[in-house]
Design a protein that fits this description.
Shape: elongated
Number of domains: 2
Structural class: alpha/beta
CATH topology of the largest domain: TIM Barrel
CATH class of the largest domain: Alpha Beta
Largest sheet: 6 strands, parallel
Number of strands: 8
Strand content: 5-15%
Bound molecules: zinc ion
Order of helices and strands: HHHEHEHEHHEHEEHEHE
Helix content: 40-55%
Radius of gyration: 29 Å
Distance between the termini: 88 Å
CATH superfamily of the largest domain: Glycoside hydrolase/deacetylase
Length: 300
């Protein structure tokens, strides 16, 4: 009888311990996981703050010291390093306007002047010679010009390398005649990843551009001002600012073609929005600008 009681008590103990263990272990796991998730979230926030450049910055900041730290740095070296770090931490933003010049280009130039902002115009020959004076005015105001296309007819220009070259030369020579500038930056109509051009012709074009020392640029922020549904100025500005926040270097796609009146209304909102962001600089593009490209040449 006594024995049986003891056995029952032992059994009870075992059951209690088993149940307790089954409850406690998962709880401990949960706590550990919660702490780890908390840490990871903190890291994600930090990374987000520093943008895509974060890895580079973490590398620089955290631990890695140059091996030859024993060598004293001159004051000049320290200053250069500080300037470089500062430059690295500033987000470069490029406003680009495609498909002009048009009836709206002058107005856009006026707004940019009012805010003392420089931008880039990827022009077409569509409205030439009517708006040809805009080409020189763009340069006189300190902006840069890029080649987009003379005709902007996708099926024609993407038919073959020869057809592409003909269109390209036509606009390049026209700009040269009007301004004396030999333009070295280019933007594919529809972007480099457009689906009109065949993969073969695209590659031929890219190789040829490279031989000609022409750098092509797509965009990583789309304002949406060319979308089928007409967006309000506020929506365009919001698209730009949200897109810019996600990028390290931001190339913003806008249009100054006829019919893009909301872009004009959006422009002050975009510039003011950018000015409210920390550590940003608005710049005109040139061939030294970091190449934002949707599709790159596969060789090499
Ligand atoms: Zn275009």
């Amino acid at each position: 009888m006594q024995d049986r009681k003891k056995r029952v008590q032992r059994l009870k103990k075992i059951i209690v311990i088993t149940v307790a263990t089954l409850l406690i272990l998962p709880s401990i796991f949960c706590i550990i996981l919660a702490v780890r998730i908390g840490n990871l979230e903190k890291q994600i926030q930090e990374l987000k703050k520093e943008g895509n450049k974060s890895l580079e910055i973490v590398w620089n900041e955290e631990t890695i010291e140059p091996i030859n730290t024993a060598e004293e740095k001159t004051e000049e070296e320290v200053e250069t390093e500080e300037a470089e770090t500062e430059e690295q931490n500033v987000q470069k933003i490029y406003l680009t306007f495609d498909d002009g010049p048009s009836i709206y280009t002058e107005e856009i130039l006026d707004i940019l002047k009012r805010y003392n902002v420089k931008a880039t115009f990827f022009v077409t020959g569509m409205n030439m010679p009517q708006y040809k004076d805009c080409l020189q005015k763009i340069l006189d105001d300190g902006h840069t010009l890029g080649i987009h296309t003379y005709s902007h007819v996708y099926n024609d220009i993407y038919e073959s390398l020869e057809a592409f070259q003909e269109d390209f030369y036509k606009l390049r020579d026209y700009i040269y005649e009007c301004t004396g500038e030999d333009i070295k930056i280019y933007r594919f109509p529809g972007g480099s990843s457009n689906t009109i051009v065949s993969a073969q012709v695209r590659e031929q074009i890219m190789k040829w551009l490279k031989e000609e020392n022409i750098q092509y640029y797509d965009w990583n922020v789309s304002s949406g001002d060319a979308s089928n549904t007409l967006l309000s100025a506020e929506e365009i500005a919001e698209n730009c600012i949200n897109g810019i926040k996600k990028c390290n270097t931001a190339i913003v796609l806008l249009h100054d073609s006829g019919g893009k009146k909301s872009t004009i209304e959006a422009l002050p909102l975009i510039i003011e929005g950018i000015n409210r962001l920390d550590d940003t600089i608005l710049l005109p593009m040139d061939e030294e600008t970091v190449a934002i490209q949707q599709i790159r040449l596969t060789e090499e």
